[in-house]
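Methods: holo model generation. Sequences were used as deposited, without trimming of termini or removal of tags, and paired with ligand SMILES retrieved from the corresponding compound records. Each pair was processed once, and we did not select among multiple samples. The sequence and copper (II) ion SMILES for this entry were:
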Amino acid sequence: MASYWDWSLYANLTESPLFDSSPTSLSGDGDQDEDGCVTTGPLANMKVHFSQKNGPNLKLPPNIFDYTPHCLSRYMNSSATARFANAAVIRRVLASPDIITFQERIDISADPTVRARGYGPHAAGHEAMMGTMRDFFSSPQDPVFMLHHGMVDRIWAMWQDLDEENYRWAINGTMSLHNLPLTPELTLDTNFGFGVLGRDKKMSELMHPRRGDYCYEYSYTEAISPKLISQKIQQPVT
Ligand SMILES: [Cu+2]
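and the model returned the structure below.
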């Protein structure tokens, strides 16, 4: 079983066991009078060491590897997930008829007109935390990053389970976000290096949670179960 932050379960994030600052939580909101630093719960006064660039920035800044210890920060904003990552939104992602639509619905569209109307749950999770999590390069330093992307992986796995033939091995796009810089088209044979973490793997070895080196699965919840989607029971996105 793999871990994830199900965005759809709590409209008010600080009421979630994940963010209520209890001993088993990932702490909660930052202290708005202390630059958003997280000062309560298990991650209280945690230091992050990779420089903060305050917002998405696709170009690697020249001083990105400077050692700049600072606090883990959050300015939690429940409306981002309540609005853009609720159960109806997730059902709509799961109802995507192809990988291009799936990508558009789960994240931010490359089309400015679509983007102006809002964003998908992947972006919403970052926007809901703000602070460290909203930083394009340093966001993985907030432990919630891992559970957030666990949820992205969960939705992808649930979608793949809906159509083994057409969805399981569907890929789209190049090797870089928004193709910046220009990179080759991704294929099932594209090689990924894992450095000290393990052997190189082809894209096709990274796409099935129960094959090759992987053996994990996600639990389903009634509100966003693939069964519901396959029965074509969908509610309009509000
Ligand atoms: Cu992300």
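The CA atoms of residues 82 and 227 lie 23 Å apart.
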